[in-house]
Amino acid sequence: MPTRSETRVALWGRMAQSSAPFLRIGTRGSPLALWQAREVRAHLAAAHGVEPEAIAIEPIRTTGDVIQDRPLSEAGGKGLFTKEIEQALLDKTIDLAVHSSKDMPTALPAGLELAACLPREDVRDAFISRKATSLTGLQHGAVVGTASLRRQAMVKRLRPDISVVTFRGNVDTRLKKLDDGVVDATLLALAGLKRLGREAAATAVLEVDVFLPAVGQGAIGIEVREADTRTCDLLANINHTETLTALRTERAFLAVLDGSCRTPIAGHARIEGGNILFRGMILRPDGSETHETARRGAIQDGAALGADAARELRGRAAPGFFAAG
Length: 325
What we know:
five-stranded mixed sheet
């Protein structure tokens, strides 16, 4: 009787010889999303000895891509960049979904799971301006554009005098708006700039100690159907365990806080010296009040540490904390 691995190799071999794709990847159609999907494809192709072209990439337009005229927090919160892709997973028209992890909703649809991550990129935010070399160097009353309530709150926390306006679009769109003088400065994830070869666009990099990143920032998350053992097995060969462990710690923190696009929440976990270190923060949208905490413990306890940190902050925040502007 053939072993499980022999059966798997035979199955993959038959698929490679057929006209059907070896795997089907679902992704948003933005330049950054397509870069991430191609990176996952390259890792999978190398790990399993197939040509990259044998793995199909299926761009899917999401609700978040369609809405450009208002903040996403007014249109339903998290999940707007994943809902249609997750439906394609459930409908079995794709085999895996590649996401920017910070876009993933706190609770995934029944039957789906976060199965793997690639190695994490730089988690820091980039400050970009044509008028100042740093956030602190902006003139009084300057206008900063961002689509993130976390960034808005953290900017207001550091510079209450600054105005923050909604700033939507992909990286190139936002940089063009900046050049056109629509705003005095903006903030983008450094990871995205690096992946697109646009790191030089950053005027300054905001250190984690000063500007805590979003949960999942810099991490490419790969979502699958829980029952799809074939795809799960294939992904196991490219999963970066440390990144997935850190991401699950951060998402456990977010889940207890019931985080959405309406809640300014920051969280970052990293593995160091055989332990997992976590720092989390909650903010009022206007930056007038913040609470933060930290945890250190065994790697296998990461999710429990994240959840415990969130419970502490929930207990410290006054009723209606997140609703206050």
